[in-house]
Amino acid sequence: MILSVNDIHKSYGKEQVLKGISFAIETPQILALVGPNGSGKSTLLNIITNLLTADRGEVSILGKSNKNPNIFKKISFMQDNTVLYDYLTGYDHLQFIGDVQGLSKQQLLNTAERIGISGYLNKKVKNYSLGMKQHLLLAMAVVNEPKLLILDEPLNGLDPTSAIHVRELLLELFEQGTTILLSSHNLAEIDRVTSKILFLKSGLLIQEDMSAYEQIRYAFVVEDVEKAENALMAAAIAVETVGDNLQIYSDRASLASVLTVFEQQEIVVLDMEKKVLGSEDRYRTIFGEKSGSR
After folding, report:
1. Which of these, 9, 19, 17, 61, lies nearest to 38 by C-alpha position?
2. Residue 105 or 157, more confident
């Protein structure tokens, strides 16, 4: 058993934040924790890593209680950049971890190279941008080659290129046998690394494999919407009209059959978009978010 979370309860005053959270990770995987701000994601991660005490419940990591300090040789927790010290360099942060974990200097430098922070490793953190701080935090989290890697908003502040790099690194770590539990608001990026999601709502978990919900939707922009809609309906192809868009789901009709109808009826297609519906659409269903809401 890699991680076992059993009946975790946590309240702040009269506010009950976590109401009996239970889940388990038995084999290496990437698992995402998703929920609105204030839903208790960070609270749960802090309890798992024993930075916060639960009111009730137990957590075990790699078969041992999360209160056993020996487990921290094999796990890492990437928090936000408030854990960094402005007056220390990036290397100072890695060296501290190296001293605690018994890591060689070469291992620290190799990690810095792998994450891409070698160019500013000897600069003080007060001179780092938000993105640079996120890279340093990630380097600190993976330097001990953990069996379980827990990440709280790892993509925060990253530009698209850096986000791609982090995503590729996470997939690489997973392929090497690392289990990853991450929280993130970036649902599109979550879809790229995992289909297994824990939705945290009103202190309770909704655990789902998003592959069961994945759908492909085609959106067409045509010259004559009414003509196209009538032609598809006549061919028994279900279609939804949203403004000037015709939306068709792949489980209702193949792309080839739709294009055949358009060709036969001489319907001019101006644009087409293929979209894989994943965690964002499921999030809207669970939390009642409407398209375009913030």
Report:
1. 17
2. 105
Residues 6+ apart with CB under 8 A from 276: 191, 214, 215, 216
- Which is it for the CA torsion 33, 175, 178, 209, positive or negative? positive
Q: What is the CATH number of the domain that holds 55?
A: 3.40.50.300
Amino acid identity, position 79: Q
Q: What are phi and psi of 72, to 5 degrees?
A: -75, 0
Q: How many whole angstroms separate alpha carbon 190 and alpha carbon 186?
A: 6
- Could you give the CA distance from residue 248 to residue 116 in angstroms, rounded to a whole number? 43
Same domain, 139 and 245: no
Domain span at 131: 3-211
* 29-82 per-position pLDDT tens digit: 999 999 988 899 999 999 999 999 999 999 999 999 999 998 988 999 998 889
Using N-to-C axis directions, what is the helix angle for 130-142 and 90-101, rounded to 10°? 10
Q: Residues 80, 86, 88, 90: is their CA dihedral positive or negative?
A: positive
Structure tokens at 260: 């055949």
Give the pTM. 0.77
Q: Please tell me the distance from the alpha carbon of residue 201 to that of residue 286, in angstroms, as a whole number.
A: 8
Cα 84 from Cα 133, distance rounded (Å):
8
Residues 139 and 247 in one domain: no
Q: Is residue 109 part of a domain?
A: yes
